Structure formats: C-alpha cells, structure tokens
Amino acid sequence: MLAYHRVGAPRFDPWRIALTEGEFDGQLAALAHVGRFVRVSDELDRTSVARLADRSRRFGITFDDGYSDNLHQALPILERHGAPATIFVASGYLDQPSFWWDRLAADVLGSSDSDVQTSAAVDEIIGGQPESSSARSAVLARAWDHMSVLEHEEIEPLLTRLEERIGRFPLDREERPLSSRELLELAEHPLISIGVHTSHHRRLVELPEADQQSEMAGCLDDLNGRIGASDRLLAYPYGSQNAQTALVAKRSGFRFGFSVEPGWISVFDKPLRLPRFDPRSEQQINTVLTVA
C-alpha cells in the first residue's frame, strides 16, 4: 500500500506531502509495469489462503486528508491507469477554505517580518521559549507541534492572533479540502472508495481514549451520513497509533487501520496496524518497484 496526500505544486510544502502531476503519473506507470493495482478493501477481504496463493505483485493506492486536488488532479491520472484508490477524509474540514497546517505554514514561511520577529510572535502565542531557534522551519515545527493535539476550536483563535502579529499569507483557491459536493462526486466514482481520517486530524496517541473514539467514530458517522455506508477503513493522522489506539479503533467498528510505517502488508499483520509505503521517499518507492 502507498500513502499519497496531494497531487499538485503548492507554493509551500514544508511537510513534503505533494507530488506533481507528472511525478504521480510516472509512479503509477512504473507500478503498472511491474504489477497490478487492487482496491484496498477488496484485497484485504480476500482469504489468507487466496492472498498467499496469489504470487502477483499488487499495489493499493491511498490518499490521506481529503484535498480537492484528489478529485481535480489525481483522479484523471488514476483513470488513465485504471487504478482504484481509497481516499481517507478528515471530515471536519469539508467545505473549509484550508487545512489549519497549510494556513500556518503559509503564514510563517510567507511572512514579510524578520525571522526574529516571526519567531517571537509564534513563541508568545504558543508559549515557546524565547531562546529557541528563529529559523522559519524550526518556528513552524514548534507551532505545528503545539497545535496538532489541540481541538479544532482552539486552533482558530491561535491562528487569528498570529496573523494579527505577522499578517496572513493567502493560499491559492486550489489549496483546500474537498467540498461536500466534491466528496460525493468522488464517492460515486467506480475507482474511488472513501475511508476515515478522523474528524479533525489530531495526534491520537496523545489524546485520552474518549477523545480518540470521538475523533474516529465522529468521522465515520459523518461520512456515513453524507455518502452512505463505508468500508470501515481508517488511516491514523500522522500515522499516530499504538496498541491502545488500535483497540479504540476496533471498538469503534473499524475493520482495518493504516499507519505510515513502511512495509509490505502480509496476512500475518494486525489488521488495525497495517503499514504503508511513502511514495515521496525515493528509497521507499524504489523498494516498492524493485523488491520481488
């Protein structure tokens, strides 16, 4: 399984989650040359005996987060190669102008203030240490680390306060989550399955069990209400999971859960702690393409 996020060329991509259309097309062509594409849920629903007996090389395509470019840039390329894909959607961001981490990155990296001024503003708002590095990448990492465990309602006022200090750097209209209409269009496409990526994309292992369940089950209920019954597949935000998180996922009704730990899926893996390769990693994509 491969864990994609975005297809496009955003102005800021500090998280390294985007591939250009050419790169994505090239990867799918290379994968098709050495194996075949499968729908994730169909492959995992096969019996262990059938999976072990099938010696062909099989690749499952997944996307995390639910960016609008999954529909507008990625889908035409998936169609060209006949490649099914599962898109894991963080439902709380549907119809929003941006994901908070993209807005934060644009503000910090695009600010016309000096590095020292930007660092001071961020540290004041998140309670960081004044002597911390003022390099933009370090400042962004500190702010992200602080916000990634907060509730959605707590992040917005922090971003607003930060923008009052350093200004707001606008994102392109294309750099946004899916709309409800776009989600429905994807869900109705024969190549696309929709999975759960929690409601608000929080780091689950650092949350109380009740909050973990709320994030998982809330997203599942939301998506089921919008597009009908799902395959009950879950991708953990940031790959943040452990044995307790997997148990919460099981209790919440999920059948399969995916991390971002690299590795091939085998019949011996725990179904709620399945690995995925990162196609942005040259080493990992080379492993996928060359290991028999």
Mean pLDDT: 94
**Structural domains: how many:** 2
In CATH, the architecture of the largest domain is: Alpha-Beta Barrel
- Dominant shape: globular
Kindly describe this structure.
With 292 residues, the chain is an alpha/beta fold. It folds into two domains: 2-96 and 174-290, Glycoside hydrolase/deacetylase (TIM Barrel, Alpha-Beta Barrel); 100-166, no CATH class. It is built from twelve helices and ten strands. The protein has helices spanning 21-34, 40-45, 48-53, 69-81, 100-110, 115-126, 136-147, 152-166, 180-187, 209-227, 243-251, 282-290, and strands spanning 2-4, 6-7, 18-19, 36-37, 58-59, 61-65, 85-89, 192-196, 233-235, 256-258. The strands form four sheets. A four-stranded parallel sheet has the order 1-6-7-8. Strand 9, helix 11 (243-251) and strand 10 (256-258) form a beta-alpha-beta unit. It is globular, with a radius of gyration of 19 Å.
Indicate the topology.
Blueprint: E1 2-4, E2 6-7, E3 18-19, H1 21-34, E4 36-37, H2 40-45, H3 48-53, E5 58-59, E6 61-65, H4 69-81, E7 85-89, H5 100-110, H6 115-126, H7 136-147, H8 152-166, H9 180-187, E8 192-196, H10 209-227, E9 233-235, H11 243-251, E10 256-258, H12 282-290
Parallel strand pairs: 1-6, 2-3, 4-5, 6-7, 7-8, 9-10
Helix pairs in contact: 1-4, 1-12, 5-7, 5-8, 6-7, 6-8, 10-11
Q: Brief description of this entry?
A:
With 292 residues, the chain is an alpha/beta fold.
